[in-house]
Specification:
The chain is an all-alpha fold. The chain has 35 helices and no strands. One of its GO terms (cellular component) is nucleus.
Length: 658
């Protein structure tokens, strides 16, 4: 290819052919064109002018003109705009002038958008270098005031994209800008209205002085009406973009919406509650509301003052939890990652947002909303509603700890009642889930005040052999119970608990066995020396798993057995465990000698087990150090879970020796 012909200012034929070759399916031809294009950058002025000529040639193919716009943006912005900055002033002036003309005259929508992006990139680069594009702002003001709808939309989009650069410089013209945006928000053309909304939000986010931002506050009703109009026109894509802009606004300055808060909240709640709208639309409206509730530091108490807001939002989020189906595979799933089978997108949003609003608003606000709906939901004939009530209770527990701890017996009652009486397995699972969550969030007060009802209920649930998901979850919930439980509260139930767990270990369901192993390890950790009573019965089960649980499908079961055996050793102590230490250590070394695949979690369980066993056995562990140190040193390359500092470093108080 002749570079001179390609950059010939009197013809764009060869250059257009080069652009076409850059997207060729023929690798050799494409690579040759890429090399030639790279060479053309040596004559930046010639390359820039050819790109502009192709872009502006109305008789040219749309594909070539699009490519010219894309490449111009890439070339002008590479290396912090070095090529554009090196252009002759005359070339820069021509490029800038032609880009504005293209914006005004272009008929192809796709190319117009690319020209907008190109103008923004060029302008941003100039401003970052403290250079000027004197014609740009007058052109944009003129376009927004007097141009056609397409040109108005383009100019508004440029305003929005450049707001971070030009926002403060427009402060003296805020009144003019306010009038222009107000007019555009009332346009009959929806793209213009959305572009005006985009620009409004961008300027509010960019302006540094809060008093300047508040001068746009009276535009909120018109901004909100743009969203409403999009929904009325069944244009949910546009509505979702508008909602995204409002969310960014709420994150940037929640106080901006204060004067129109009731109207904003009513509109967003109506969208979130509207069952005929797309899930994505309802989710975004909810996110706006939750974002405002979380802004308590910058706008304290603002959302609590909106009449009936908390109750309606709570009810809406509970309704989201009804987005669930009784998937048959859920009942037989053996992997924890399959626990979400049957759950829709709204279900996940409902869970997350209930947790967030409880943390943001606190028990005095959220618990009354929960109490208002709980009786009707928990007594409803529809299992989904009973399930939703219990899931909601578990989700708000963390944020409502102070309120729930005042009456832990009452807090667990809905879960205990459902676990004892509800015929639906998924509802009983939700009840177990709620108990487990509250054991964590409300401990140790819950364990001290409600152990006589909670632990027997979980033990009973372990007998539900027809529903292994409930069995496994009940075993897992005892881990939550025991972790924060005073040993004296656990002691009366140890015999029964150990019998249940050992029975579950012999079950055919892998997830039940894994949960039982974790519960057994946690029980040993809680019982400590009292666990000696069960040691002789438990250890053979654990050794049997290490020997016989072969195959990749049993990785986690083996890993749990490794964890359990090390915690049992720690619990019963060196004197008792040393009698079996050699056999156990040989089994673990044999397991480690077989090697682990990269995604096998057993590696981490092994490392933690070696640490515990070293602490348990003391100097009796020395013969195994050579074998253990290799994997430990290899793990040093991994990101650490714990960072150890020298005692007293950085003013820290000295920690205890252990």
């Amino acid at each position: 290819m002749d570079l001179a012909a390609i950059l010939n200012p009197n013809s764009i034929d060869a250059f257009t052919h080069l652009l076409s070759g850059l997207s060729s399916a023929d690798n050799e031809q494409r690579e040759q064109c890429e090399r030639v294009f790279e060479s053309a950058k040596a004559d930046g002025n010639g390359l820039a002018m050819q790109l502009v000529r192709v872009l502006r040639f109305n008789g040219g193919e749309t594909r070539a003109r699009e490519t010219a716009a894309v490449l111009a943006r890439r070339v002008f912005t590479a290396d912090n705009g070095a090529l554009f900055a090196a252009l002759a002033q005359n070339t820069q002036d021509v490029v800038k002038s032609e880009l504005l003309n293209a914006l005004k005259e272009e008929s192809e929508v796709k190319i117009t958008r690319k020209v907008c992006d190109l103008i923004c990139e060029v302008a941003a680069g100039l401003m970052e270098r403290d250079e000027r594009w004197n014609e740009l702002l007058p052109f944009m003001f003129g376009a927004v005031s007097e141009g056609g709808d397409r040109l108005k939309e383009s100019a508004l989009n440029i305003f929005a994209q450049l707001s971070g650069y030009i926002g403060e410089s427009l402060v003296p013209q805020i009144a003019t800008l306010h009038g222009i945006l107000n007019a555009c928000l009332s346009s009959a053309d929806m793209p213009v209205r959305v572009a005006a909304l985009r620009a409004c939000c961008a300027f509010v986010e960019a302006l540094e002085n809060p008093s300047d931002c508040m001068k746009f506050q009276d535009l909120l009703p018109a901004m909100l009406q743009t969203l409403v109009a999009a929904l009325q026109g069944q244009d949910e894509n546009t509505a979702q973009e508008a909602l995204g802009l409002f969310i960014e606004l709420a994150e940037t300055d929640p106080r901006f919406v204060r004067n129109h808060l009731t109207q904003m909240v009513e509109t967003m709640l109506s969208i979130a509650e509207h069952a005929d709208l797309e899930d994505g639309t309802r989710t975004l409206a909810t996110e706006f509301l939750v974002t405002l509730t979380e802004a308590r530091d910058r706008a304290p108490g603002m959302m609590r003052k909106v009449p009936n807001f908390v109750q309606r939002l709570y009810n809406c989020l509970v309704t989201f939890l009804l987005d669930i189906e009784d998937d048959e595979d859920w009942h037989t799933a053996e992997n924890e990652e399959d626990g979400g089978l049957g759950q829709g997108d709204l279900y996940e949003v409902g869970q997350e947002c209930l947790d967030r609003i409880a943390i943001a608003l606190g028990p005095n606000t959220v618990l009354p909303a929960c109490a208002q709906t709980m009786p009707a939901l928990i007594g409803d004939a529809d299992w989904k509603k009973r399930h939703a009530a219990l899931i909601a209770l578990s989700q708000i527990a963390e944020g409502c700890v102070k309120g729930m701890k005042k009456d832990v017996v009452g807090a667990v009652q809905p879960c205990l009642h459902a676990l004892a009486t509800d015929p639906h397995p998924r509802v009983r699972w939700a009840a177990i889930n709620g108990l487990g969550q509250m054991c964590t969030d409300l401990g140790p007060r819950l364990q001290e005040k409600a152990h006589t009802t909670v632990l027997p209920a979980l033990l009973s649930a372990m007998d539900d052999a027809k529903n292994p998901r409930c069995q496994a979850h009940a075993a897992a919930a005892t881990v939550n119970f025991s972790e924060d439980c005073p040993p004296e509260c656990m002691q009366p139930y140890l015999d029964s608990l150990m019998n249940k767990l050992l029975t579950l270990l012999q079950a055919g369901n892998k997830s039940v066995q894994e949960a039982a192993l974790t519960a057994l390890a946690s029980t040993a950790d809680n019982a400590q020396e009292s666990f000696v009573k069960y040691y002789d019965v438990v250890l053979p089960y654990l050794k049997n798993i290490l020997i016989n649980a072969n195959g990749s499908e049993y990785r986690m079961l083996r890993a749990k057995a490794v964890e359990c055996i090390s915690l049992v050793g720690m619990a019963v102590g060196r004197t008792r465990f040393s009698q079996d230490a050699r056999e156990v250590m040989n089994l673990l070394m044999q397991l480690q000698s077989g090697g682990f695949e990269d995604d096998d979690q057993t590696v981490q369980y092994m490392l933690q087990a070696w640490t515990r066993l070293c602490k348990c056995l003391g100097d009796e562990f020395i013969p195994y150090l050579d074998f253990v140190m290799g994997p430990l040193l290899k793990s040093a390359n991994l990101k650490p879970d714990v960072i150890v500092k020298k005692r007293g470093e950085e003013g820290e108080e000295e920690e205890e020796e252990e």
